[in-house]
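To: structure desk
From: M.T.
Subject: fold request, one chain
Message: Could you run this one when you get a chance? Sequence is below, nothing fancy, just the single chain.
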Amino acid sequence: MGQYNVDKVEYENGTYYMYTKEGTEEEIQQLQPTERLLTDSNDLAFVYIMDGDGFIQVRLPESVWPQIEKSRAERVPFVFAAAPEVELTGFHEELDFLLHNIPGNNNYGEEMEQAVTAAFSEAADM
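Reply: Done. Structure tokens follow.
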């Protein structure tokens, strides 16, 4: 399973754009969203699964969670910055599901629970 590590997110013209150092624009354009979002509690990351040459992980570390929270709260598209853009469809709905399930759930680990609760207002309200 390949992976892309998102290292920067920027807001422009009503969209949040993700940037990564891995892969080429052509490779990113070939990715197909699967509408599946997982967690990596060990690395404190959300992982969106894409279909490309097999399954591809789009890893969203804690450092970009503030932008993810803004995107979620505003329901603004979250896309890979490639031409044409590749949207992470179903991202907000999957994130909402996780934010309702992480607080108080020992399966995610205490560190992940605390990080999510600190970063996301939805989880903090649980």
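Reply (cont.): The two ends are 34 Å apart (CA to CA). Let me know if you need anything else for the meeting.
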